[in-house]
Amino acid sequence: MKLPAHVDEQTFANRLERFRIETPSWGYGDTGTRFGKFLQDAAATTIEEKLADAAEVHRYTGCCPAVAVHVLWDFAPGIDLRSVGQSAEELGLCIGSINPNVFQDQCYKYGSVANRDPAIRRRAVRHILDSVEMGRQVGSTLLSLWFADGTNYPGQASIRQRKRWFQDALRQVHDALPNDMTMLVEYKPFEPAFYHTDIADWGMAYVFAKQAGPRAKVLVDTGHHLPGCNIEHIVAFLIDEGMLGGFHFNDRKYADDDLTMGSIDPYQLFRIFHEIVGAEVERGHDLDIAYMVDQSHNLKPKIEAMIQTVMSAQEHLAKALLVDHGALARAQEREDLVLAERILKDAYETDVRLLLAEWRQRRNLPADPLLAFRESGYAERVAKNRRARKPASTDRYA
Ligand code: AFD
Ligand code: MN
Ligand code: MN
Question: Is the CB of 74 inside a 6 Å radius of any atom of ligand 1?
């Protein structure tokens, strides 16, 4: 398939080649909503199984060598962390971001680093520092911090005091980071707190990251915005400030639905990639951003949904690479907003699937990773082995 005249074929192929996106260990295990879990026979249970499944996604897509780990969900007490790093390496993978967990233990009922009890604040910071050490042991250079901290009712706590406790904790964590580690501060407007969340939006995450230190950046989870929010505006602003650390990609119709990337609003996903590519064209080099998936496939088969997401990421990056930036700048100069919008839409409405299929085949990858995986029978094989090990169904109607 021919590229548009304004796109250099090698530049296009090389940028796709350099694109890497991290998949999350928790995307391969049984997850659910607060109303319960629907178990899948093929779902992974152990970190070894999650790595094996992540290796399948990487095998068919060729762009997902890193796997995010969730400290409490993946590292059982006493686990030999070096063996986890070795298992990943043997599978052609590496451990990506380290995700501490300061939101599940009973002691965090009224908060973690913003808990009124200094002993619980210290415990939360301790767990995060332990996670930094675990990350160092498995070769991770990324600490991804999400806090559920917040309150459910007006008057429940001092928002200003909690802010100050957060500043102290994040500065402590930053000061303990190994030189090669970056910490990402993630924001989310609500859930599980329903009156105020201590890091509720990009601005709060920005301030906390700035105050923590130079290796703290903002993590944009695309599902963590109130309806109508212009996410690409936030992305453009953070890029220009040098404060965009990375993404947790997913899609949502209403809130933090963790639906597969691009499944609800693909045009918004394109506009996000357009801001990234636009900045890279302007600067002449790739942005140093952590592209990470954060979705839990409550109904879709886990590995297929992850491959779908990765293909969607490649497709929307490819579309953004088709924008004619010269023509766009000229149209903008003339305030020709009809033509300017059309230049974006021309790129977005280009069907890049054949382009990507040809690009994959030139890299000895399957033209259609999803169909190739489906035909491999991997899911059926692991379902058979893993089903035998799962507890019998407790359904009354089973
Ligand atoms: C949940 C949170 C947040 C976090 C993720 C992994 O909303 O997105 O990054 O769990 O801990 O989705
Ligand atoms: Mn997230
Ligand atoms: Mn989330």
Answer: no
